[in-house]
Design goal:
The chain contains four helices and 30 strands. It is of the alpha+beta class and 490 residues long. It has four domains: 2-138, Immunoglobulin-like (Sandwich), CATH 2.60.40.10; 145-233, Immunoglobulins (Immunoglobulin-like), CATH 2.60.40.10; 237-296; 306-483, Sandwich (Jelly Rolls), CATH 2.60.120. A hairpin with a 2-residue loop joins β24 and β25 (402-404). α2 (236-254) runs antiparallel to α3.
């Protein structure tokens, strides 16, 4: 109660002085009429400028939250600065702009609790001006994560969840044509914490053969910020359950029929089963043709290029495996070597044809694997340039979650994490594909307008304590475990 009384008394004294003194209208304060929007974790400027653009160097500038005049956030007075305890490194004036009458406040590392009304108070001798500014904080949430909820007969149900948003986001499912899936159901929840962050979850049922690929898209409330994840649905999801449903259905009917009806039903089952078997046989033949087609492609015995390996990467004598270790300062510096990125390339580059190679990634805790357009000397030495598609690199990685390597990565369901990863390049069709060899699922496929030679890429690696091995391809990608050489488990 006492701080409130003191605050009111101070304000009364200020305004009594102003009321008793002749008002000098040499300056007013200009602030935005609209609410200032800031993004959590980023910086924002609360604009406040003297209308006359006169110098504010000799003035007193006070920034405070509504109702907290004495407990100011920032005070510039007699060319001295003071700030609220705990906020010293988060608030400041644009001091070089004071001579131009700019007394705006820079607020750094925004938090949800920073939202609210602020007041810009400027005084000189007996004259003072004060204007309010409202600040709203928005927070962009997590990349949506898709998970398999259940596999029921001829359909599968997927769930998508994203959390830590403010204000409440929008979520939709779309197919590969960009059409919204209207069958989705959405559930929104708000946190009980003071920040009132929002989560959104949506589920969708997918009928057999209806879509090959679907996307879960979450956007900010103004639709200006978007994150998405995708899942590619293999035909194998439905085959068993569809046949099982047909068989159970006929069996249930037969219980209520006489011996004659039972015979007829069995005949019907036999015909249905024959038709089903023929259909499955056609699908098997199509799959076999795909496998034979892959077997006809050029076999690639990929070797790693020691001249490109970062100083912390150790290659085996046969150039088939790589591990992460201490920095080797004795390594000869070459124009081909990566200086800052812990990467290594394959020896051979490809500028035509179809190529395929595999990795055994069982129990690997972190990896990044892809294809890169032949990097320049500058790119190999660049410190901040990322291995993104716009820089001629197409990769997927695993580091707690499976995702693409790009600015806005696609997060894949954990069920797609491969023990064996296949990398397929069709240079002439400009296609790169990654797939789970054992489960026969395509994880990610991209069409890119690349040029020049493309090289196999491993990295950046963060800590492969044991070797990660690339193997020769003996067969097509859908073969048994004995067809590829395994690597040492991480």
């Amino acid at each position: 109660m006492l701080p409130l009384i003191r605050n009111i008394c101070v304000k009364i004294i200020v305004w009594v002085i102003l009321d008793a003194s002749p008002i000098n209208t040499e300056f007013n304060l200009i602030v935005p009429s609209h609410t200032v929007i800031g993004l959590a974790g980023h910086d924002v400027i609360l604009p406040c400028v003297l209308s006359s653009h006169a110098s504010a160097v000799s003035m007193s500038v006070r920034w405070f939250r509504h109702g907290e005049f004495l407990d100011y956030l920032y005070l510039y007075e007699s060319k001295k600065i003071s700030a609220r305890k705990g906020s010293e490194h988060r608030v400041s004036l644009l001091t070089q702009q004071l001579e131009r009458g700019n007394v705006s406040l820079l607020l750094k590392d925004l938090r949800m609790a920073d939202a609210g009304r602020y007041l810009c108070h400027v005084s000189e001798q007996e004259e003072a001006r004060e204007e309010p500014i409202d600040l709203e904080i928005i927070q962009h949430g997590s990349v949506p994560r898709i998970s398999l909820v259940r596999h029921h007969k001829s359909s599968v149900q997927f769930s998508c969840r994203s959390h830590s948003w403010y204000p409440q986001p929008h979520m939709i499912w779309i197919d590969h044509r960009g059409q919204e899936l209207m069958s989705a159901t959405i559930e929104r929840t708000s946190s009980s914490k003071p920040e009132l962050l929002h989560s959104v979850t949506s589920t969708v049922n997918v009928e057999g053969g209806q879509w090959e690929e679907i996307f879960c898209v979450v956007t900010s409330q103004d639709r200006e910020y978007k994150l998405e994840s995708t899942i590619q649905i293999a035909e194998e999801y439905y085959k068993e359950s569809a046949f099982e449903r047909a068989y159970v259905s006929v069996f249930a009917i037969s219980i209520f029929l006489g011996l004659t009806s039972i015979a007829a039903s069995l005949l019907h089952v036999r015909r249905a089963k024959t038709e089903k078997e023929e259909d499955l046989e056609k699908q098997k033949r199509a799959q076999t043709e795909k496998e034979e087609d892959l077997e006809k492609q050029k076999r690639d015995d990929v070797m790693l290029d020691a001249d490109t390996a970062h100083g912390r990467l150790k290659l085996s004598e046969d150039k088939k495996s790589v591990s992460f270790g201490e920095l080797d300062r004795q390594k000869t510096q070459t124009d081909k070597r990566f200086i800052h990125k812990t990467c290594v390339l394959g020896e051979a580059g490809y500028d035509s044809g179809r190529h395929y190679w595999e990795f055994n990634l069982s129990n690997k805790t972190q990896w990044s694997i892809g294809i890169i357009q032949e990097p320049t000397k500058e790119q190999r030495k660049a410190k901040n340039e990322q291995t993104y598609p716009e820089n001629g690199c197409w990769s997927i990685c695993f580091d707690k979650e499976l995702k693409t390597v790009e600015k806005n990565p696609k997060i894949f369901p954990s069920v797609l994490k491969p023990d064996k990863l296949g990398v397929f390049l069709d240079y002439d069709k400009r296609t790169i594909a990654f797939f789970n060899v054992e489960k026969k699922y395509y994880i990610h496929c991209v069409t890119a307008n690349f040029k020049g030679k493309l090289f196999p890429l491993i990295g950046p690696l963060k800590g492969c304590e044991k070797s990660l091995k690339i193997s020769s391809v003996k067969r097509g990608p859908h073969k048994t475990e004995n067809d590829t050489v395994s690597s040492t488990a991480d």
